[in-house]
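To whoever is on call:

I kicked off a structure prediction for a single chain this morning and the downstream step that reads the tokens threw a length-mismatch warning. I double-checked the sequence; it's 205 residues and nothing unusual in it as far as I can see. Pasting both halves so you can look.
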Amino acid sequence: MATGGGFRGVSAGQDARFSNKEKRLMAQMKFPKELSVKIDPKKVNWAVMKEWIARRVTELLGGLEEEVLIGLIYNYLEADKLDAKQLHMTLTPFLEKNTSLFMKELWSMLASANQTSTHIPQQLLQAEAAKHAAALQAQRDIQAQVEAARKAAEAKILEATARTQQQQLPPPPSPGPASAPARAEGRAGGRASRWDRDGGDRERD
């Protein structure tokens, strides 16, 4: 029967037929084995998980941030009892071929969150640790480059200083002509005078 607003109501029989059709469709589908894991919603850090869900859905949609779809996933996950297969069927028209991939990743993270003391998936903890380590390594690389540049600059300054000091030294004295006494001494030691020769001859006679 139509209501005053012109919309036809759904009878209990029609609702049951829809539910049965949904169950038959669910029985025909193949779901990732990860979806069989039971999740305790109270042991999940939803603030961290919601950030991952929004980012991952946006990636799978080619960069399109679909707020309505993301909100729909949030609503499903806020239930007291999580039905992974039902969520999989709901997301299929939106994520299409990426639905199984997303649900497999999502449920694996939820299962991991149930096992950690922080209720944050181990995958995200490792990713954050790797990001932190990469940031520290980048900082160390920058410091090493700065230190190498400083040492190179110091070496250039020392080299330039040594070169300047070398240029400012006085030139060494050049060797000049021998002095007169040195020349006389050289002649006396090298050749005897005529009187000395004559005296030597007389002694031999």
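Update from on-call: the warning came from a stale cache, not from the record. Cleared it. Sanity check on the structure: Residues 122-168 form the longest helix (47 residues).
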